[in-house]
Write a structure and sequence with these properties.
2 helices, elongated, three-stranded antiparallel beta sheet, alpha+beta
Length: 73
C-alpha cells in the first residue's frame, strides 16, 4: 500500500486518467473528489464488497432457486 499525505485542494493521479482530489478535511473525515472516465467504475469499498458477494452467490445459485429468489423481490 502506498500512503500519501495530501492537504485540501491537493490531488493524486492514478494511471494517467484518474484524479483524486482532497476537497475538505473535518476532524477525522476527509471528503474526496474523484475524476475518472465513465467506463471506470468507482465504488465505496463496502458497496463493492456487497456487489462481489451478490455476484458470488449468483454464480453458485441453482438456476431455479435464483429465479424464485428474483421473483420474491
Amino acid at each position: 500500500m502506498l500512503a500519501l499525505s495530501r492537504k485540501k485542494n491537493e490531488a493524486i493521479v492514478i494511471n494517467n486518467n484518474i484524479e483524486v482530489t482532497i476537497l475538505e478535511v473535518k476532524g477525522d473525515q476527509v471528503k474526496m473528489g474523484i475524476t475518472a472516465p465513465k467506463e471506470v467504475p468507482v465504488y465505496r469499498k463496502e458497496v463493492y464488497m456487497q456487489i462481489q458477494s451478490a455476484n458470488e452467490e449468483a454464480v453458485h445459485a441453482d438456476g431455479m432457486e435464483a429465479l424464485q429468489n428474483l421473483l420474491k423481490k
